Amino acid sequence: MSYINKKKVLFYSRINKSLSANYGVANKCDEQVEGLRRMGWEVDYIWLNDDGVFLNQNIIFSFVAKLRRITFFNYFFLYFRFHAILRNKVDFLNYQLVYMRYELSHPQFLTTLRKIRRENPNIKIILEIPTYPYGLEQNGMLRNFQYYIDRRYRRHLKGLVDRVVHYGIEKKIFGIPAFRMSNGIDARSINLIVSHQKPNSINLLAVGAWNYWHGLDRLILGLGNYYSGNNQKEKVHLTIVGNGAILKLYKKLVSQNMLEQHVKFVPPLPRKILDNYFYQADIGIGTLAIFRKGLCLDSSLKHREYCARGLPFILSTDDLDFPKTIPWVHYFPENEQAISISSLLEFNKKLKKVERLENKIREYAEENLSWEKRWRQLLSALSNFNTSE
After folding, report:
1. Residues 12 and 139 placed together within one structural domain of the fold
2. Domains in the chain: how many in total?
3. Phi/psi zone of residue 211: left (φ > 0), alpha (ψ -120 to 50 degrees), beta?
4. Does residue 197 sit in the same domain as residue 337?
5. 42: which strand partners?
6. φ, ψ for residue 87, nearest 5 deg
7. What's the CA angle centered on 366, arms 365 and 367, to 5 degrees?
């Protein structure tokens, strides 16, 4: 049976859309759903925010106030009540495909998968693992406990899940066939920037939910080296938008290098409000140290948003959607050394020679990075595989 011709899918993501740290991932999930719908699929979307759990735009479970505020109650709900609600509210016979963003394995998650298999043996279950391996992402007592539970139960995923979708090089994960699919972007939902570079001045923009593998410390140290020298041909300013525990370190580095006049911190912002910052930006800052997680490929959402906005950007680890031959992308070495600002200035000098730069970058996003293209690749692979691979 060819599942590429089937037309109904259950899309499930357990991230809380109300948390500012989840803005980027929430946008991605919304765009994935809309991409499927534009291809003619009927999509039922399970998601949640501070008010409760939703099926499309209909609330199927309401939260009490303290559940939103106390971590223990959040944990209890997500690991016990949530899957009970899912199993009671959803008729899995209605679907040909279930697409889940991986939440780490635990008994209730496996119970849900077993019920799906029992009620609809013909369904295809796809598990998206945004980062693999993900062990180095687990920080803090609660996350380490969740990871401990995950290590005990994830071996049972084989036989329940048909395919793992991820962004790395592994051909199997947990013994399950893996399909490599890069992140996409809906360029039509994003405003194109128009660069207004000022003479002898460059505005760098970094947007994200920040952690140690993003490597902004490398850039801050590079700015420190630049401004402590005697050859400052241009003013270089950096705006960091977002949150994360690592910001304490970044702010400390800014203070130690006396960069307060050149580095600005801004809290997380919805995409529409971010427009004002993108309109002032000359170069976007991608991930500069994802190798710290033990990864050899990158598929960061921020790279795709920069591209959709028509903004050139820098990064470090290979992102297969952006070959090093592209003139508006600049790779820095994968190491712990400070970013060379002189190299960045040379990159910017070359950018000024490219005609219609913003339009060319945007056109690349429209032609190569759409979620429809990503889905076609995955669905084509699904129609031709068997689970015994």
Report:
1. yes
2. 2
3. beta
4. yes
5. 8
6. -70, -30
7. 95
Provide CB contacts within 8 A for 237, sequence distance 6+.
201, 202, 203, 204, 262, 263, 264
Residues 214 and 134 in one domain: no
Instruction: Give 250's contacts (C-beta < 8 A, 6+ positions apart).
Output: 210, 216, 217, 220, 240, 265
Domain CATH number, residue 128: 3.40.50.2300
> Minimal CA–CA distance to 242: which of 25, 92, 83, 59?
25
* Dihedral sign, Cα of residue 15, residue 204, residue 239, residue 318: positive
Taking the C-alpha atoms of residue 32 and residue 202, their distance in angstroms, rounded to an integer, is: 34
The per-residue pLDDT for range 215-269, each reduced to its tens digit, is: 999 999 999 999 998 778 899 999 999 999 899 999 999 999 999 999 999 999 8
Report which residue type is found at 301: L
**35 and 175, same domain (yes or no):** yes
Measured CA to CA in angstroms, residue 307 lies from 23, 174, 271, 285 at distances of: 18, 33, 14, 11
Question: Rounded distance, CA 339 to CA 347, Å?
Answer: 13
Q: Buried (b) or exposed (e) across 289-299, using 16+ Cβ within 10 A?
A: bbbbbebeebb
pLDDT tens readout for residues 318-376: 999 999 999 999 999 999 999 999 999 999 999 988 889 999 999 999 999 999 999 99
Please tell me what DSSP assigns to residue 34: H
User: Does residue 388 belong to any structural domain of this protein?
Assistant: no
Cα separation, 62 vs 376, in Å, equals: 36
pTM of the model as a whole: 0.89
How far, in Å, are 151, 154, 247 from residue 26 at the CA level? 26, 25, 22
Coil vs helix vs strand at 125: strand
- Residue 15: name the closest of 66, 93, 115, 82 by CA: 82
CB 183 within 8 A of CB 167: yes
Q: Are 268 and 301 in contact (CB under 8 A)?
A: no
Long-range contacts of 174-182 (CB under 8 A, 24+ apart): 176/127, 177/385, 177/387, 177/389, 179/378, 179/381, 181/374, 181/377, 181/378, 182/299, 182/319, 182/320, 182/321, 182/369, 182/374
- Spatial separation of the C-alpha atoms in residues 389 and 176, rounded to whole Å: 8
